[in-house]
Amino acid sequence: MAVFENMNFTHSPGIAPLVKEYYDRAVLENMEPEMVHSRDAQKRTLPEGNGKHIRFHRYTPFEAVTEPLVEGVTPDGQTLIATEFSAMVKPYGRHVELTDEVDFYTLDNVHQETAQLLADQAALSLDSISRDALNAGMNVQYVGDNTTRGTIDSGDVLTFADIKKAVRTLKRHNVKPFADGYYHAIVHTDVVHDLTSDPMWVDVAKYQDKERIEKYELGKINKVKFFESTNAKVFRPQTYIYGTVAAITASANYDAARRVLTTAASISADDARALTGLMVNVQYTSNSTNYVTPMCIERVDYTTGEILFKWNPGADVTSKWTTANALKIVPYGGGASGADVYSTLIYGKDAFGTVELGGNGKNVSIIINPAGSSGAADPLAQRGTIGWKVKGFCTVILQDDFIIRVESGATA
User: Fold this and answer.
1) What is the mean pLDDT of residues 77-90?
2) β-strand partners of 279
3) Is-contact 313 293, C-beta < 8 A?
4) Among 240, 248, 252, 263, whose CB has the most other CB atoms within 10 angstroms?
């Protein structure tokens, strides 16, 4: 058990400080490059003794000055306006239990290999937390002529026109690009397959300054640099509405006054409870085209088969919710005909913030407990553990206008 040499069993159940520092540094170096969704965030340290909340600030830009200065008269001072964001950090971590025989009989350095696997898990975990936070923004754009996620199919791929539109939106809100002069984007591998076929795509291989290419950087279009991630958000459709029920067909036209759709389905009391509060898509067919509208079920009367929705989407839509148009309720979450919908995040400087993993906060640590360190819980010194822990982590959008979620399909 060479990893545990020079340990002080009398005073510490852990490992030598230099060994621990090595593992902490190795885990951090392995994690940070893989966390694509945190790469451009404002970062704050997490000092001890300062509670579970971390604060970010958003400053309101000053308006243009159109009045000239008057000779000898000093104008009134301006007030600096800052909006404070407070986000709660939470701890994360996992561990692996290793026996003494693993150390004694195996030739490989199991602890180093395990530390690498744990670093990969930690990176994926924190990147997923950041990804979900960034995809919760209200600034969304659907590719092509789509107006909802539910109408996007696999043929609605991300194009130069969609990116150009997103850039225009960012510029309208005076979003600053990064120091390299570009907005940045995080794109899924499946979307890359279509995007790199666009004639306006500029691959990194064509860059003149190849020394500044960053990890996972693929290329650029219209002042946007793209970074690839297999962990980018994918909105996948639910398989069933509840249980094994794939769809509910309407038996009567939608009653807009009561916000009620009557079905012929046999709905039990348990099924009614499962449907209450559920997001669904209301689908109808018009001129051989399927249309879907996301809706939320408020409650279900299982004795009459009536489903009450929380809102009306508008008379122009509900007037077409008739049984003649094959009106039915289908699972929510993906695109048309069960297509996966991909999120491409395009953003500028200071769009979001997160917690620093390294630096003064010493936020990331690898924890190794050797066999025999558990006292009476491990009387024969047979079990040890190695794990990762992040004391506190969170990601928050600081400026909703500074980040756009572009939703698209991807070819098979």
Assistant:
1) 81
2) 296
3) yes
4) 248
Q: DSSP assignment of 306-325, as one string?
A: EEEES----HHHHTT-SGGG
Residue type, 393: F
Query: Residue with structure tokens 């769809």?
Result: 247
Residue 26 has pLDDT above 70, yes or no: no
- Predicted confidence (pLDDT) per residue in 364-399, tens digit: 787 888 787 877 878 887 888 888 888 889 999 998
Single-letter code of the amino acid located at 275: L
Rounded distance, CA 407 to CA 166, Å?
11
- pLDDT of 4 reads 36
Strands 341-347 vs 234-235: parallel, antiparallel or unpaired: antiparallel
Distances (CA, A) of 44 to 54, 189, 366: 8, 30, 21
Give SS3 for 204: helix
The arithmetic mean of pLDDT across residues 224-244, rounded, is 91
| CA pair distance 239, 252, nearest whole angstrom | 25
Q: What is the DSSP string of 52-105?
A: SEEEEEEEPPPPPP-SPPPTT-PPPPPPP-EEEEEEE-EEEEEEEEEEHHHHHH
* pLDDT at residue 190, rounded to an integer: 95
Helix (H) / strand (E) element for 228: namely: strand 224-228
Question: Cα separation of 103 and 118, whole Å?
Answer: 18
Cα gap 227→130, rounded to integer Å: 15
User: Is pLDDT at 361 greater than 50 in this prediction?
Assistant: no
pLDDT tens for residues 283-310?
A: 999 888 888 888 999 999 999 999 999 9
* CA-to-CA separations, 330 to 151, 274, 309, in angstroms, rounded: 13, 15, 14
Which is nearest to 334 in space by CA: 243, 278, 408? 408
Residue type, 306: E
Sheet holding 352-355, edge to edge: 42-44, 352-355, 395-397
Query: What amino acid is encoded at 186 in this protein?
Result: I
Contacts of 118 by beta carbon, 8 Å cutoff, 6+ apart: 27, 94, 96, 366, 386, 387, 388
CA distance linking residue 365 with residue 134, whole number of Å: 25
Question: CA dist 369 to 29, 117, 186, 374, 375, Å?
Answer: 22, 17, 38, 8, 11
For residue 144, what pLDDT is reported?
Answer: 94
* Res 382: pLDDT: 83
Are the beta carbons of 93 and 392 closer than 8 angstroms?
no
